[in-house]
Amino acid sequence: MSNNRNALLLTILILIGLIAGAVVGQILFNKYDGNVPTSIVDSFEFVGQTFFMSLLKMVLVPLVATSVIVGVSSIGDSGQLGWVGTATLIYYFSTMLVAVTLGLFLVTTISPGKGIEESFRDSQVQDFEGGNSTTSERVKNASGTGLIGAFKNIVTQMVPKNPLKSAVNGEILPVISFSLLFGIALTMIGDAGKALQDVINSAFATIMKLIEWILWLAPIGVFALMVWTVARIGLGSLRGPLFYYVVTVLAGLAIHAIVILPIVLVIFGRANPATYAWQMREALMTAYATDSSSATLPVTMECAEKQGGCSRRAARFVLPLGATINMDGTALYEAVAVVFLFQCFGIPLGPSELFIVAITATLAAIGAAGIPSAGLVTMVIVVEAVNNSLGGTPLSLSAVGIILGIDRLLDMFRTVVNVWGDAVGAKIISRIAPD
Ligand code: ASP
After folding, report:
1. Which of 327, 400, 419 gets mutated to test ligand 1 (max ligand atoms within 8 A of its CB)?
2. Element (H or E) spanning 415, and its range?
3. 364: Cβ contacts below 8 Å, ≥ 6 apart
4. Cα 410 to ligand 1 centre (Å)
5. Which of 12, 44, 258, 304 has minimal CB crowding within 10 Å?
């Protein structure tokens, strides 16, 4: 009972943090006419990053390593593990492809890029070319990787040379690969591995305790991060020249999250989507404010196991993997954004280019890390693949500048969908691998 009351209190506090953060951010934005002094913006960033994001990141690597090892070793025999792994991958790929197809359908039907103001378009492109913000630098550096490069990037991360180095650098996929192999080997050595399994189990339980504490900082963290975002960008930008683009992205994300994933959940997970979304609420709100599925992972695991009724065997294996490779929201977003940019310059895309967008957007989303704006950076791969298919460079990469300013706001929504997709996957796999 008191646990329920605590959970409800925490939810209310996080919700207040989200709303109050947006309100305060917008008040600041209006007061300073869109030029809020850096000192003010930075102080909110400092609070949000240090007292929430950094703590979540602090537990991330040990959480991923211990949970995957514990998850794999609890699934036990290799036949069952193979089946769980295959079902998980099928779920990830099929839902991402559905998301991309939905995005392509909407962007080609609504055609948000057709009516774009040319003066706005050109000034954004120029600003991008002259700008040196961290995100624009990341986008510029990502060019030239190509489709093969994207593939290589995923595969290299899956075969880590030095898992400790990856762990130190906070790279999650290599840590997962190593932990997967380690967990399988640990199960295969039988009794000899029992002592170590117990130690890792205890380490995992300890990390989960830490996460419970960190969650109580969520209201402050979420508030500060919201102020930081809204004060810099202003909610009004959602209504600006990119309005139809915003509508297309948000409609796609909403249909995927509210219609498609719930149908999948009902059919394959036999669960009530509204109840389950409520049980996952803290994770969804954290995803919204942090823009990062990786940073949200500790909260996702806490909600899925403690309130969502997911089996421990499924959650500990499926959620860490999902936070890094299963990104429905990002895949949908990349497809919409790329076609939109080509539309802005009046470059028509035929069925074969749309097919290339579908495949590369899925790959790019898999390769994207669960961090803010990762989707915008890996989108470069999709633009380059379409350019190659058309021949030459019909669309300059600087076109990304058109959507750079609004990316952070849209990233919030797509990260929620990414986390929701992971949560639905964990519920479905819980039926295959119950405790
Ligand atoms: N921010 C997203 C996530 O962490 C990735 C992206 O689309 O940029 O899930």
Report:
1. 327
2. helix 401-432
3. 150, 330, 331, 334, 375, 378, 379, 381, 382
4. 10
5. 12
For the segment(s) 38-194+237-432, the CATH number from 1.10.3860.10, 3.20.20.10, 3.40.50.460, 3.40.50.720 is 1.10.3860.10
Torsion angle in degrees (nearest 10) through CA of 112, 332, 106, 426: -150
- Domain positions in the chain are 38-194+237-432
Cβ neighbors of 230 (< 8 A, separation 6 or more) are 21, 22, 24, 25, 26, 28, 29
Q: Which residues form the pocket of ligand 1, taking CB atoms under 6 Å from any ligand atom?
A: 291-293, 327, 330, 368, 370-375, 411, 414-415, 418
For ligand 1, what atom is nearest to the CA of residue 323? 9
pLDDT tens digits for range 143-195: 666 677 777 777 887 888 899 998 998 888 899 999 999 998 998 898 898 99
d(CA 339, CA 337): 6
Distance of CA 107 to the CA centre of its chain: 21
285-297 pLDDT, tens digit each: 999 999 999 999 9
Atom of ligand 1 minimally distant from the CA of 372: 1
Contact of 279 with 394, CB cutoff 8 Å: no
- Chain centre distance of CA 248: 19
Confidence (pTM): 0.90
**Substitution site in 373, 407, 408 for ligand 1 pocket (most atoms within 8 Å of beta carbon):** 373
Tell me, in angstroms, the distance from the centre of ligand 1 to residue 376's CA.
9
Residue to probe by mutation, ligand 1, list 330, 379, 382, most atoms within 8 Å of CB: 330
The position carrying tokens 């950094």 is 54
Ligand 1 atom with the smallest distance to the CA of 370 is 4
Question: In 190-271, which ranges are E strands?
Answer: none
